[in-house]
Every structure is written in structure tokens, then in C-alpha cells.
Amino acid sequence: MQILKHELSYYHTTSFKWRQRIGCGISDYACNLAYLLANTYLLFYYTNCAGLSAGAVGFMFVVTKFIDAGTDYIVGAILDHTDTKMGRYRPWLLFGAPVLAIGMILLFSVPTSWSAGAKLAWAYVTYIFFSLGYTLVNIPLTPIVTALSPNPAERTKIATTRQVFATLGSLTSSLFVIPMVYYFAGSPDATGSALASGYRNTNIILGIMVIVIMCICVFSIVEINPPTRTVEKSTFLQDLRDVFKNKYYIMLLVLIFVMFAGYLGMYGAMQYYYSYVVGDVTAMPMALSLLTILGIPSLLIAAFLNGKGIHKSKIVQFGAVVDLIGYFILFFTSNSTVATAALGLIGFGFGFRSGMFYSMLPDVFDYTEWKCGRCLAGTQSAVSGFLNKLASAFASAAVSACLTWGGYNAAKLDSAVAAGQKIAEVYPKTHMAINFAFSGISIISGIIAIVVMLPYDLDKKYPEIRADLDSRRAVKSES
């Protein structure tokens, strides 16, 4: 159990609370740097620098997701049985940081002189290693919020700070990675091995940044509200059964899947939408910037509203309604300015949803502990993390299925655009497929997200649950 070095009054000061918020928040800055590197640049690196086929790489991503699911669960389950002087979660953050950093570097260090089969084997091994590093760092980050404070309003502030730093990590990746790659490659026109070395050297710099940031995080935060320790031994399967007795957790799992499937599906189809529906791909960077930046004010507004007593589930539903308005606008427009404004609106709405979602998870973890007498936050975090990854895979598959149904042919579409033809007139089925992939899937996901939150009433019950947990812990500490 975490050993506290100061009197309890110290941990209730404003300065310490801000140290906790920022210390925990910067961890998501590091995680998002790594996450976006793999999701934004890796496929291009594999095909254009390492010479691997897109089909082989796509299959690799699917296979490794299932391996990832196993490691997620194992790490989460072990986490629930961890008890050290540093606490339950901080040691994992410290241990996982160098694994993640080395994985980032190895991902972008494919030996280009090897045969295709050997290079693909390298890709498999290093992607699994990278995913393990990401799991070691990311799985503890959600349940650690329960250990940083017993106060639901303070947890909201910690989760909000995390999301703000996550957004800044996304912006850093979007704005600086490509310039760094070409700087280290030696030329803005670099290709082949020169470009490959640019990616490798960029990841060395970013990997060092990840280690430094995670160390600052670990030594800035304190687990002042440690989970309950139980003498009763339990198996991993028993833990998993107890996790799924929590009806609120099941609601959040559905919310995770639909929320991220819709959002990531939109990302996956965005370049197609701006290239062939809007017909102006140069407007895409501005749209991405608005989508990212406008989530920050809504994160702060959501935290303020929750502090004023507005239930988290209602704020999530409000954000989903705002997003739906944006998605409906996208579905019926092909105007560049209107589409970009709609994406800004979606970013604003998603800030409400993501901020409250990461604040709701610790409450749901506490409900499981209250219900079954054991803290299983690690297992719950692992399962929810896998659902997030599954939503990502589903989003990619759904976008691909829409394009296949629409008879997508890049050469024909590019020729039509070059000839000044409107895709909606010459290839109406393809136009509809791209439109549906970009906003239609997200509309369906948004409606489900609103409906699944209707019976969620944990916000009303939580004060009583929190009081009971505190009294249990007081009795245990006295004995």
C-alpha cells in the first residue's frame, strides 16, 4: 500500500490537488504521442519506407489485436493483485514507460535490406512489443484516478486535465511529427531509406520524451485513496464474473464501443470525404485542427457543470446530441466551409462526452468494489481498453465495407475530379457510400449512445456508496 510521507491535511491543499491533476494529466500527453504515431503514420511507413504490402499489414493489425486483448486482460488482472509501497498503479507506469519508448523506436526501425517475409516478421514482433508497452502504461491510467481522490468532483477535474493534455499530445503529433521526420531525413523530398531514418530518429526523440514525462507523472502523484485489500483469494475467472455483475459497467462498455466506433470511423473516412464529396482536400488540416482544439473548452465546461451538480450521464447525453447535429449537417452538405464548421461542432460535443466518460469510469469501479467487496479496477480497465481497440478495428472494417459496397475506385474518381465532374452525379453510389462511412455510421452510434445512458442512475446513488466504502475502509484500518 502507498506509504504517505506527509500529514493528511497536506493532501487536501489546493497546491497538492493541482500537482495531482497535472501529474496525472501529462501521462495522457505521452500516451497520445505514442497512440497517434502508430495510428497515423505507421501504415505509410510500412508501405512507403519498409516496402510491405498494405494487405499484409492490414492483416497483421487484425491478428495482433487479438493478442493485445489477451495481454490487456492479463495486465489488468495482475494489476488488481498488486500491492507495493509505491501503491498499486504507479509501479506499472514507471516500468511500462521504457517498454513503450523502445517499442516506438523498434516499430520504425524495420531493416530495409531484409527479405519481405523477414521484414513482416519484424513488424509483427515489434508491433506486439509496442502494444504491450502501451498496455502497461495505459491500463493503470484509468483506475489510478480512483486512488488519487475519493471525491467525485475532484476525479472529474483530474479526468478533465488528462483529456486536455491528451488533446495537446494529439496537436503535437499533428503539427511536429512530419516536419521532424523530414528534418532528420535531410530533405523535404526524401524517400526510401533516408525517409526511414527520419522516422526512426524522430521516434528516438519522442521515445525519450515519453520516458521523461512518465517519470515526472509517477513522482508527482500519490495514491492517497488506495483500493481495499482483501484477505480472500480470488481467481481471474471469478474476478471477471464479478466485473460483469455491474450493470453500470455494461452500459459503459456499450458506450465505449459506439462512441469510439463512430468517432474513429469518421477519422478513417475523412480524407475520402474531403477529396471526393467536398472536393477540397486542402481544407482538411483546418478541419482536423478545429475538431481537436474545440474539445478543450467543452472539457472545461463539462467539469464546471458537474461541479455544480449536473449528473455526468446527462452531460454525456448532451454532448452526444451536439455531435449528432454536426453529423447530420455533414451528411447533407458538400460545402467545405459548412463541413469544417460542422466538424468543429463535433469536436465541441465530443469534449463533453470524453471528459465525463473518463470521470464516470472510476465511479463504476467503486460500485464494483462496493458490490463484491474487492477492487477490480484493473480488470475493468483492461476489458474497457480492449473494447476501445475493438471499436477501432470495427470502424476500419465498416469504412472499408461501405467503400466496397459503393464500388470505390480511386483511379476513376481521381479522373472525374480532374475533369471537373461532380462525384455525386457521375458515381452516386460511391458518393453515398463515402458520405455514410463519414457521418452515417456516427449518427447511428450517437443515437445508441444516448439511449444506453437513459437508465444510468449511478450519479444519484454514488454519495451513499462512497460513504459506505469509506466506513468499510475506516473499520479495516482500525483492525
Backbone structural class: mainly alpha
Radius of gyration from the alpha-carbon trace, in angstroms = 23 Å
User: Roughly how many Å apart are the termini?
Assistant: 16 Å
- The CATH architecture of the largest domain: Up-down Bundle
Give the helix level as a range of percent: over 70%
CATH C-level class of the largest domain is: Mainly Alpha
**Average predicted confidence as pLDDT:** 86
Task: Provide the succession of SSEs.
Answer: HHHHHHHHHHHHHHHHHH
- The fraction of residues assigned to DSSP E strands is under 5%
Specify the CATH homologous superfamily of the largest domain.
MFS general substrate transporter like domains
Into how many domains do the coordinates divide? 2
CATH topology of the largest domain: Growth Hormone, Chain: A
Characterize the overall form: globular
Largest sheet, in brief, is: none
Q: Helix segment count?
A: 18
Organism: Parablautia intestinalis
Protein name: MFS transporter
GO cellular component, one term: plasma membrane
GO molecular function, one term: symporter activity
Characterise the protein shown here.
One of its GO terms (molecular function) is symporter activity. One of its GO terms (cellular component) is plasma membrane. This is MFS transporter. Keywords: Membrane, Transmembrane, Transmembrane helix. The protein is mainly α. It has 2 domains: 1-227, MFS general substrate transporter like domains (Growth Hormone, Chain: A), CATH 1.20.1250.20; 230-479, MFS general substrate transporter like domains (Growth Hormone, Chain: A, Up-down Bundle), CATH 1.20.1250. Helices cover 79% and strands 0% of the residues. It has helices spanning 14-48, 54-80, 90-107, 116-138, 144-148, 152-185, 192-218, 236-243, 247-278, 284-293, 295-307, 312-332, 336-372, 377-405, 410-418, 423-426, 428-452, 458-478.
